[in-house]
Amino acid sequence: MEIFGVDIGGSGIKGAPVDLDKGDLAQERCKVLTPHPATPDAVADGVKQVVDHFGWTGPVGVTFPGVVTDGATIRTAANVDEGWIDTDARVLLGDRLGGLPVTVVNDADAAGIAEMHFGAGRHRTGTVIVLTFGTGIGSALFVDGVLVPNTELGHLELRGHDAEKRASSKAKEDHDLSWDEWARRVRKYLAHVEMLFSPELFVIGGGVSRKAHRFLPKIEGIKAEIVPARLQNNAGIVGAAMRAATGV
């Protein structure tokens, strides 16, 4: 069974048909740059460009980098235009895609859903936290496999700032941090999250997960197990498709 997944990020909009039996992309993904400003209409045009690239005519799952309620309504927009707030993204994107059925889900929640079903969190019980490091820091919290949606742990305060302003992969680039320097910031962030939630497992995702060997061995003093995401930066696309398959 194939369903289309789209992952809206702060820097790129990427998508592809997903083989839900394998938990992997059925075709090589298409990616376009996220427009700036990332207004609802401009981003919707980007989503349409990605979907049209494949001539897709079925259900579409779409991730969004902010709080999403009822599979439709946007409540926060930290790394895109504030015009998204209170937008019914399901209606907006469905109209832009010619009436295709659309389901919208928080981007980190989508990545977490995919990792828990097909990836590093599979068969894991207890408290598992999936963190995606990119333009910001997304989070997905699971308790015995059940998602607690829209946790937004990237906005926890760390040394007087949103944690994602100090420890995202964008912060690494913006401040020209070495892997050692960035790993120290990530360790402080993980220690703070661990103090609050005491997870058994951290799954580290986002594009930087491809280079996990560069920084994960440098993170010490965390009691929870820390592993890289198996689906890496495709997890959001896969999770979006999984959510669209259920229609919720």
In a nutshell, what does this entry contain?
Helix content is 32%, strand content 26%.
**Given the C-alpha coordinates, what overall shape results?**
globular
Q: What proportion strand?
A: 25-35%
Largest sheet: 6 strands, mixed
> Any low-confidence stretches, pLDDT <50, length ≥5?
none
- What's the total helix number? 8
Integer-rounded radius of gyration: 17 Å
Structural class: alpha/beta
First-last Cα distance = 17 Å
Count of distinct strands: 15
* Average residue-wise pLDDT: 96
- Tell me roughly what share of residues is in helical segments: 25-40%
Give the secondary structure arrangement, pairings included:
Elements: E1 2-8, E2 12-19, E3 24-25, E4 30-33, H1 40-53, E5 60-64, E6 68-69, E7 73-74, H2 89-96, E8 102-106, H3 107-118, E9 127-133, E10 137-143, E11 146-148, E12 157-158, E13 161-162, H4 163-167, H5 169-174, H6 179-197, E14 201-205, H7 212-215, E15 225-228, H8 235-246
Parallel strand pairs: 1-5, 5-8, 9-14, 14-15
Antiparallel strand pairs: 1-2, 2-3, 2-4, 6-7, 9-10, 10-11, 12-13
